[in-house]
Amino acid sequence: APDIPVANVQAHLNQFLSIATANGGNRAHGRPGYLASVNYVKGRLDAAGYTTTVQSFTYNGATGYNLIADWPGGDPNAVVMTGAHLDSATAGPGINDNGTGSAAILEVALAVARTGFSPDKHLRFAWWGAEELGLRGSRHYVTALPAAERTKIKAYLNFDMVGSPNPGYFVYDGDNSDGVGAGPGPAGSAQIEQTLQAYFTSIGVPTRGTDFDGRSDYGPFISAGIPAGGTFTGAEGTKTSAQVALWGGTAGAAFDPCYHRACDNLGNVNATALDRNTDAIAYTVWALAGAAPPPG
Ligand code: PHE
Ligand code: CA
Ligand code: ZN
Ligand code: ZN
Ligand code: ZN
């Protein structure tokens, strides 16, 4: 997998901030900054050769949008899907939550195109609407998918907050081996967790498990029996001194002190965490999609 330049990811964050600033300070569901964000991401993907679809839904009297991007080729019956929510909370521009996940997966998608990656499995990327109002976009997508299409999705990778300023390196506990999940996820979730962990091990960064309870857009996927996984650098929770011993940073402070606040801007991102997580996404997409299917 390629090493993704973090400057490319940061350039997308600059665009998300400009969009928020030009649209009343946020990129929230039902507000103009949300659709402007969709159009920015769609434009980059279309130019790179993706097949994009905008799926509309209605929530709370407003139209919401999911952006779906398919990379042509690969086994149509074996899909590796990667997603992030593109909406912000109404209080601010949502740069860590979730500009970081949105920008990281966008840059991985663009790296697929740049490198001419031709995986065995089919690659699909998604930017979800209205996560902040209760996973509305991702739930709409999974609910609307025919059962035959659901079973084709072999893995769903979710990235929600991957550049927290006082970061932890958390991997969703898909196998419940850390005992912090809500029980093991669908079969295959363990392999996703182990692949993400393998990347961090390769760069010498320890990880810890985090809740696999559905508090982000992977929830509707695991409810439908689709294997899932992802990473997270922390939200309103407080970093402990034991976590500082592992990762550095500030004990007794939140992983993200600007969570759902107006100050979730460009200064609210740790570039090292963003870089490592983006590279972990690329590693995992390449590993899960590129392997030859087992014989038989
Ligand atoms: N989904 C939460 C939000 O967007 C953040 C979160 C992500 C919390 C992952 C826990 C785990 O506000
Ligand atoms: Ca990198
Ligand atoms: Zn979020
Ligand atoms: Zn949020
Ligand atoms: Zn585990």
UniProtKB/TrEMBL annotation:
It comes from the Bacteria. GO terms for biological process: proteolysis. One of its GO terms (molecular function) is metalloexopeptidase activity. Keywords: Aminopeptidase, Hydrolase, Metal-binding, Protease, Signal, Zinc. Residues 66-284 form the Peptidase M28 domain. Belongs to the peptidase M28 family. M28A subfamily. This is Aminopeptidase. The chain holds residues 47 to 342 of 520 of the full protein.
